[in-house]
Every structure is written in structure tokens, then in C-alpha cells.
Design a protein that fits this description.
Length: 145
């Protein structure tokens, strides 16, 4: 089972993914880093940008540009099986909005949302859910050492 994630310089998403203790790889933060190309089905974990757009009425772009670039590669996009989004509940109805956008564009289930870097319950719920539903989602079960 592979978790592909993007984390900004705040590292909140990286901290959450690290706690899942599942194989993972990070979408590059900077444009000068080599492009990430995956070779197996994965679940994408993505933070939400531009919170509170529904409150402010401004046009927002909740999916980080690095994630858009990664998913614009048809090979990478063909292997996504589910999406998980982070965010801030202060964003109101935009909490975890990146997951809604990615799920709709890639036609995959939006399986979980968490706040900031998640808590222990978020980690356990997502980890157990991904493992229990790996076959249904089209993910390889994690290897047991």
C-alpha cells in the first residue's frame, strides 16, 4: 500500500502521514525538484489551501499547484485509488475542500478528512480503514514484516 502526499513547508501533512506508518512518498515541494512518478496504486493525502472561500466569496484554488502538476501526469492520475484531505475547521464548509475537488476530477472516493496534522484517533481510523478496505479500493495490502 502506498500513500502519496503533499506537505507544505509547515509539514503538518507530513507529520500526519508519518504517524500512519505506511509506505509513503512525498510530492516535491519545489519546482526545481525532480518530478514524482509512481508505479503502483496509491491513496493521495493532500492539504487544503485558501480556506474560507465560501465565506469570503472569493475564487479559491484549494488544491496545491504541486498536486495539480502531479495529477496532470496521466500515468500518476491513472493510479490514484482514493483521496484524503487535511484542512482547518475554521474554513467552515471549505474544510478539506481539496478532497472534494480531487475526488470529483479523478473519480475516486474521498475517504477521510482531518484537521491540521490530525490526532491519534484520525491516525488510527484512517490506517485501520485503509488496511481493512485495501482490496475494495484497489490498493495492495501493506507488507507485514
Amino acid at each position: 500500500m502506498l500513500v502519496v502526499y503533499f506537505s507544505s513547508a509547515t509539514e503538518n501533512t507530513r507529520r500526519f502521514v508519518d504517524k500512519l506508518q505506511l509506505p509513503n512518498v512525498r510530492i516535491p515541494l519545489r519546482a526545481n525538484e525532480p518530478e514524482l512518478v509512481v508505479d503502483e496504486p496509491y491513496v493521495l493525502v493532500c492539504p487544503t489551501y485558501g480556506g474560507g472561500v465560501s465565506i469570503s466569496g472569493k475564487q479559491g484554488k484549494p488544491v496545491p499547484i504541486q498536486v495539480v502538476k502531479f495529477l496532470n501526469n496521466p500515468h500518476n492520475r491513472s493510479l490514484i485509488r482514493a483521496v484524503v484531505a487535511g484542512g482547518n475547521s475554521n474554513f467552515g464548509s471549505d474544510f478539506g475542500k481539496a478532497g472534494d475537488v480531487i475526488a470529483a476530477k479523478c473519480n475516486v472516493p474521498y475517504v477521510y478528512r482531518f484537521e491540521l496534522m490530525g490526532n491519534d484517533e484520525d491516525v488510527a481510523t484512517l490506517r485501520n480503514g485503509l488496511i481493512a478496505n485495501a482490496a475494495t479500493l484497489g490498493l495492495q495490502p501493506p507488507r507485514v514484516a
